[in-house]
Design goal:
The complex is a heterodimer. By secondary structure, chain A is α/β, with parallel strands linked by helices. Chain A has 17 helices and 13 strands. Chain A is globular and about 80 Å long. By secondary structure, chain B is of the alpha+beta class. Chain B has two domains: 60 residues, Arc Repressor Mutant, subunit A, CATH 1.10.10; 78 residues, Glutaredoxin (3-Layer(aba) Sandwich), CATH 3.40.30. The chains are: A alpha/beta, B alpha+beta.
């Protein structure tokens, strides 16, 4: 097998890698120049479609197919939204790319706008990335000065403006229609689909929403060709006619209990074990793995027996998880309690549910309250059944919500119960020996105040004084 | 006549956003950021004035404002807002203990401001700095691989 050459992170680590000068010195914007001269927009769409590029933001939808849903001969305007709202716990690969190589993303955006006919692009950037904001803003200004943005780009017929729109601390804005609502100035409540954004999106116009890493891949596919792209990653499973495969490089973010947390670019399909041992310096403090989140918190957990799972679009599914997600791998060591894991996860989704759909708003909030009570030593064994019921009934898959946030909340619950139920039961028996078999409903803790749940100890202490 | 909350300077900055969007409603979010940045919160009077400036109903602005946890309404935030990440990667490496330590050091709970108006303590869900867990965002500065000692250092540097 030929050695793998990173492209998405190739400039990271060079001095001033975020500047136009350094980007151009490494061949930057040559692809844009060539494509504008040599290719028609439709050819670009066809090439991306043929490459089988799948979205890097979480859902893995084929990018070229998404573009091809735009209405033909639309009078315009068409919009492109670059999703840089990266808020999935354990994910920071977009941040690293935007901070260190913003021009790569901009070149991808300009190429995608050429292909789709978009005349304006909005980069939806989460507020918590001040350095990425500064660098993207500088990069956009450099592009206008150099003639890569604005009217008649590089002497062609193409005109494009790129605007950076900053979020305000809401995870739901990463959902593509929540993102659109947020740019329009509304609360980020996801829309019911259809109509899909390609038909009726931002400002009621045809819109494409792509993750920023996906857009960077567009640039590399146009530069290096389909053959190069498909020589990397996992080919389609011949036994599954609907599997488009998992081609290309992916930036994985690795964090948690490892010696060297960070970003690494590897072919899709890299096994979890290899990622931890060869690219993250192994588990810290000489400990063993207990559980691994394969692709951002929403995807659930793998157990220590599932470390040979390949990180491609279908690998984590086969191990009972939601999917590849964002490629945000979180390693948990053998000393970490899965009660703490599930408490943390349920708190996150309860906090981030946008409140639009009742099953999600109530389901995530009650799952968190149940986990608070379990963690505080007042859990009952039947609480686990209750959690399972919530996990199985909220989300797009059971058909009870508009967007996938609730699915993301459900998967950590479902996978923890499937793989670590014994540990949860032990904890409940140990911390609540007298009440663990109580089948009758028990009140939630007196007040649902987030700051009282900082540690279970504190809650127990508060209880003891009543 | 009562004095305006939105100064001429803030209004100019808001108007500068108009060409970026085809609707005035879309200016609400960037405008809220500009107001929050300039005066530390978005009081009801600012909501009314912004609505007037953009030609939208005040309820439209309030609806958007109240959705995003970022904007303070009743009281201005402190000179520095400290966001302590408690999501999984940071939480599993001691983020929650650091939050507790900051509560003790500052004598406030998350969401509160120190009586001298210096610091507002906030909990954050994943700030995308898991490679530096546990991480804290203080204003625009990301503090990496935090410990109690580094929190002490950080507090000394803040205005």
């Amino acid at each position: 097998m030929p050695t793998f050459e990173p492209v998405l992170l190739a400039n990271v680590g060079k001095p001033d890698s975020h500047t136009l000068k350094v980007y151009e010195a490494a061949g930057g914007y040559q692809t844009l120049r060539r494509v504008l001269q040599e290719m028609a927009p439709k050819e670009v769409v066809d090439r991306i479609r043929a490459s089988q590029l799948r979205g890097r933001g979480g859902a893995g939808f084929p990018t070229g197919l998404k573009w091809s849903f735009l209405p033909k001969d639309d009078p315009g305007p068409i919009y492109l939204c670059a999703n840089a709202d990266e808020s999935e716990p354990g994910t920071f690969c977009n941040r690293v790319q935007m901070e260190h190589d913003p021009h790569q993303i901009l070149e991808g955006i300009i190429l995608a706008c050429y292909a789709t006919g978009a005349s304006a692009a909005y980069i939806y950037l989460r507020y918590e990335y001040p350095l990425a904001y500064e660098r993207l803003q500088q990069a956009v200004e450099e592009c206008y000065r150099a003639g890569y943005l604005g009217r008649n780009i590089l002497g062609s017929d193409m005109s494009l403006d790129i605007y950076i729109h900053r979020g305000a601390g809401a995870y739901i804005c990463g959902e593509e229609t929540g993102l659109i609502e947020s740019i329009e100035g509304h609360r980020a409540w996801p829309r019911t689909k259809p109509p899909f954004p390609a038909v009726k999106g931002l400002f009621q116009r045809p819109t494409v929403v792509n993750n920023v890493e996906t857009l960077a891949c567009v640039k590399h596919i146009l530069e290096r060709g389909i053959e190069w792209f498909q020589s990397i990653g996992t080919p389609p499973d011949p036994s599954d006619p609907r599997d488009p495969g998992s081609f290309g490089p992916k930036v994985f973010s690795i964090s948690g209990h490892v010696n060297r947390p960070g970003c690494v670019e590897l072919p899709l399909g890299v096994p979890v074990r290899e990622l931890i041992e060869q690219h993250a310096g192994g588990v810290w403090k000489g400990r063993k793995v207990k559980a691994v989140v394969p692709g951002g918190l929403s995807t659930g957990v793998l157990s220590a027996h599932e470390l040979d799972t390949p990180l491609d679009f279908s690998g984590p599914c086969k191990a009972g998880c939601l999917g590849l997600g964002t490629g945000g791998v979180i390693v948990l060591d053998e000393t970490y309690s899965m009660v703490d894991f599930l408490h943390n996860s349920c708190r996150f989704f309860a906090h981030e549910s946008c409140g639009q759909c009742t099953p999600c708003r109530e389901g995530t909030a009650w799952a968190y309250r149940i986990m608070q009570r379990i963690k505080a030593g007042r859990g009952r064994l039947v609480d686990l059944d209750l959690l399972e019921e919530i996990g199985n009934s909220i989300g797009i898959i059971p058909g009870s919500t508009i967007c996938g946030l609730a699915d993301g909340a459900a998967w950590p619950i479902k996978t923890t119960l499937a793989k670590f139920r014994d540990e949860l039961e032990d904890y409940i028996r140990r911390t609540n020996p007298l009440g663990c078999r109580n089948p009758a409903p028990v009140e939630a803790l007196p007040e649902w105040r987030e700051h009282q749940s900082i540690t279970g100890r504190k809650l127990l202490g508060a209880e003891a004084t009543i | 006549m009562m004095e305006k909350v939105l100064t001429e300077g803030i209004c100019k900055q808001i108007e500068a956003c108009y060409p970026k969007y085809p609707t005035r409603e879309a200016v609400i979010l960037p405008a809220l950021h500009l107001i929050q940045e300039a005066i530390g919160h978005v009081p009801p009077k600012a909501v009314e004035e912004l609505a007037h400036l953009l030609g939208v109903p005040p309820a439209r602005v309030q609806d958007t404002l109240s959705f995003y946890g970022f904007f303070a309404q009743d009281e201005p935030v402190g000179r520095t807002r400290i966001w302590v990440c408690r999501s999984l990667s940071c939480g599993a490496r001691g983020g929650e203990e650091l939050l507790e330590y900051l509560c003790q050091r500052l004598g406030v709970q998350p969401g509160q401001t120190t009586p001298d108006g210096r610091i507002t303590l906030e909990v954050a869900e994943c700030i995308g700095a898991c490679d530096y867990a546990p991480a804290i965002l203080a204003g625009r500065v990301l503090w990496k691989n935090m410990t109690k000692e580094k929190i002490d250092q950080m507090l000394e540097t803040l205005p």
